[in-house]
Amino acid sequence: MVGTELQSRRVARAQSAGDTDGLALRDVRRVFVHGRTELVALDGLTLAARGGEVLAVVGPSGCGKSTLLELVCGLQRPDGGSVRSAPAVLMPQRDLLLPWLSAVENASLALRIAGRSRSAASTSASALFEELGLDGFQDARPHELSGGMRQRVAFVRTLLAGKPVLCLDEPFGALDAITRAEMQDWLAGALAREPRTVLLVTHDVEEAVLLADRVAILSPRPGRVLDVLATEIPRPRTRTDPAVVGLRERALRALADGARG
Amino acid sequence: MRARALALAPAALTVVLLLGAWEAYVQIAGVEEAVLPAPHAVASTLWSDRSLIAHNFAVTAEEVVLGLALALAGGLALAVTVHLLPWARRAVYPLLVGSQAVPVPVIGVLLVFWWGFGLLPKLAVIALICFFPVVVTTVDGLAAVDPEQRKLLRTLDASRWQAFRLGELPAALPAALSGTRIALAVGVIGAFIAETTTPTSGAYPGLGREILSDVNFQTSRAYAGTAVLFAFAIACFYALALVERRVAPWSIQRREEPR
User: Fold this and answer.
1) Contact A183, A151 (CB under 8 A)
2) ipTM for this prediction
3) What are the extents of the domains in chain A?
4) Chain B residue numbers touching A141 (CB-CB < 8 A)
């Protein structure tokens, strides 16, 4: 249901503007001013993703990854260069579920904002709840859910925003290793069934290699793209696949080289 | 049930100890009743004059409840206005602070001139005393919303109004309720101030007026009236805690979670 809705929106947009569902950042610069000190977060960053592509962005912490996502979502403006993107939704690092809403109300927040009735919004979310193993927890409050479940609810909320571009900021960073692996498998499956353009920011190189079509390596601050590795590994991928392991090593080496400067 | 009884035990024990010390002081030091009536004398007056005290209490309780409702409605409306319109904040916030320094008797006569000897001037005084904590806590609560939460609502295409209704307003509710609790605590003494500072035609009763007229000649009845106000304030406070449990259960769960 969500898929068809999205499809029709895609078609409508493609017809109207000849636009794609991709995104393009060209020579982007972003500076934060704190009193007298200037902090250059991004400088000369150029990056693009085609519609339906999963682009992972890895880099040392503090290299401006979250800033990059907020630029794409239109929450910040660049100080130089240009940012173009199809409508994008942000899934922040923390789940940020509203404690006064039930799980299903949180998940269907975007639909409520778009003016859909409470019951219609809940019905749309419930299908995804089943898929994500959240069935039966529709009416639970966020504090009653485990960290993994909260993150899944946040993910449903992101999907139901119905936007072609998903900006995921360390979506599984706060989870334990087992839950994280489960969520990665689930995300890979979900994207295979219902492709979206995904900008996945992570510090987990393995996660990037498992999920992405391409992996962009960012330099330490001020962040710019050092290298883009195409994964080209058939799906479904496994952690132990020699191609995955090899690419992970390459990416790690590129990160280490970048850190050395 | 047993756990609840046990939870009440410390408060009950404190009251018993204080009353015991008070009684002992009056007996041993031989304090006259006109200066400090002993607890047993207060209790017996409370019983013998119960219909008079109950009658006056009903008037005062009505004032407190209505005055507080007025303060809440006005305070919340003002807080929301000040939050949504930054220039309104600059325009009225200093005046709000100043309003708390106005000695009530100064305006008491004016209020009666406007609204007569009835209930209305009293409600106005109570509301004036009570609305301030509601405004301040609510404004702070609205401003303290997680900026990340605001960003999230924006990427979900929420309008300013939707972000307010879905995100900021519920987030500020626990703070507003804290303000209400403070307002309630000062509301009871506010009723006393209201009754004793707005001129009243002789017929208008109320526990505050009664206490004021009793304090010189019927000291034990003044104490009995005070005891009733004392208990009323406590009862209101805990009634509000029950309301909070219903309207903002998440804030209580958060407080009870060990973090």
Assistant:
1) yes
2) 0.82
3) 2-87+163-260, 98-162
4) 250, 253
